[in-house]
Amino acid sequence: MEKSFSRSSRISQELQKNIAVIIQHSLKDPRIKTIITVSEVRLSKDLSYAQVFISFLENNYNLTVKKTLIILNKAAGYIRKLLCNKMNLRIIPTIVFFHDDSFFKGNKISVLLNKIKKNNNIIL
């Protein structure tokens, strides 16, 4: 019987959980003043490189995105060190953080669809 999940997808899910916990509890940077959500982790085929996509809610959106990404990418080595203690992997992947703005894009599309619906009296 085949496994329903590949090894890389199981590792990426576990990395997502552990990185979220580390950012929330172990990363005590006073410059980070927002709640960060780890939305996805993409691993390379050899499991040595991880793209971590984060999203967060903040009023000063563009300013916060740039600053928070810089802070997190500078702390990636520390986060990787903490992952070594939590996970039993031979190679802990190198982490690079990226911004995930899919929530805001989806929200914008939803608002546009609602406007069209109101203007044309269409039931969706």
Description:
The protein has 124 residues and is α+β, with helices and mostly antiparallel strands. The protein has a single domain (7-120), classed as 2-Layer Sandwich (GMP Synthetase, Chain A, domain 3), CATH 3.30.300. Helix content is 52%, strand content 18%. It has four helices and three strands; from the N terminus they run αββααβα. It has helices spanning 7-26, 61-74, 76-86, 102-120, and strands at 36-43, 49-56, 94-99. Strands 1-2-3 form a three-stranded mixed β-sheet. Helix 1 crosses helix 3 (76-86). The longest helix is centred in the first third of the chain and has 20 residues, at 7-26. The N and C termini lie far apart (42 Å). The mean pLDDT is 86. Belongs to the RbfA family. Its main location: cytoplasm. It is found in: Cytoplasm. Keywords: Cytoplasm, Ribosome biogenesis. This is Ribosome-binding factor A.
Radius of gyration: 18 Å
CATH topology descriptor: GMP Synthetase, Chain A, domain 3
Q: In sequence order, what are the helices and strands, one letter per element?
A: HEEHHEH
According to CATH, what is the class? Alpha Beta
Low-confidence stretches: none
What is the total tally of β strands?
3
